[in-house]
Amino acid sequence: MANALHLTNAKGRDATIGITTLKSPPQAAIGILGESISFRRYIAAPESCIDVELQKRLGEDYSAALTESDPEIDMETIGQAIADTSVVYIDSAGELMYAEPRVIDIIYSPDGIEKERREPTEVAANVNVESPVRWTGKKLPILDVVRKYFFRRTLQLRHGDGLTFDFLYEMARELEQDQVMVLVGTGEKGAGPLVFQANGRGYRGFLEGRTDGKRYMLLLHLSDMEFKMPVRKVMETAND
């Protein structure tokens, strides 16, 4: 993922600034206080004991066999510890594939209906290139944005010197004073998505600013999903 962002401000001036992910809060410890824990994986059942194989050997209704002889349990295999594993691909029939499957893009409409299948296209990263990510000037109240968009992740914009400090601090102060987020995007009009790595996901970007005296925090919220109210369909009833 890119670690720098080429960005314009409200006046159209641009600068290259650093970006970093926010640190997650510490999670609750699992286990007994003061004791270390480790995770292990064990075999629950070999391939010969799964439902499909049992049906082949005993027929579709093998409930009686379960109570009489426990054919679903392999006493010599079950419970063995699993060490290193490797990823393999299988086809729809469960057969091992010796070449990676061909990847295709499936496009769905908002109502979940498949619209198109196509070969994947190569997408270049575009957040730290000659053409900067643009401050569109489209400001939205913070409450409206958080209710309308799902944020996939949040990045923090950071300065590297005094000039970029002033550059980012002014952005943060303006946004905080207006209690808004501003939409940022790529392209001449800022209408394009933000792509942080080659063939990566495209995002809408929303800048949020916070200040505390001479300190600031400028956050870039990334969204690839918009919440929309479902269309209410009126059922027509025929008159008798």
Write a concise synopsis of the structure shown.
The chain is an alpha+beta fold and 240 residues long. Helix content is 16%, strand content 33%.
Structure explained in plain terms:
This protein is α+β, with helices and mostly antiparallel strands and 240 residues long. The protein is 16% helix and 33% strand. Strands 1, 2, 9, 10, 11, 12, 13 and 14 form an eight-stranded antiparallel sheet that branches. Strands 3-4 form a two-stranded antiparallel ribbon. The longest helix is centred in the C-terminal third of the chain and has 17 residues. The radius of gyration is 27 Å and the shape is elongated.
List keywords for this structure.
single chain, two-stranded antiparallel sheet, alpha+beta, 14 strands, Ku70, Chain: A, Domain 2, elongated
CATH architecture of the domain at 4-23 and 122-226: Beta Barrel
| CATH fold naming of the domain at 4-23 and 122-226 | Ku70, Chain: A, Domain 2
What overall geometry do the principal axes of the alpha carbons give? elongated
What is the helix tally? 4
Q: What's the average pLDDT?
A: 88
Helix-residue proportion: 10-25%
> Mind telling me the C-alpha Rg?
27 Å
Strand content: 25-35%
Number of strands: 14
**Sheet having the most strands:** 8 strands, antiparallel
Tell me, what is the CATH class of the domain at 4-23 and 122-226? Mainly Beta
In N-to-C order, the SSE pattern is EEEHHEEEEEEHEHEEEE
**Overall SS class:** alpha+beta
As residue ranges, the low-confidence spans are none
N- and C-termini, Cα separation? 64 Å
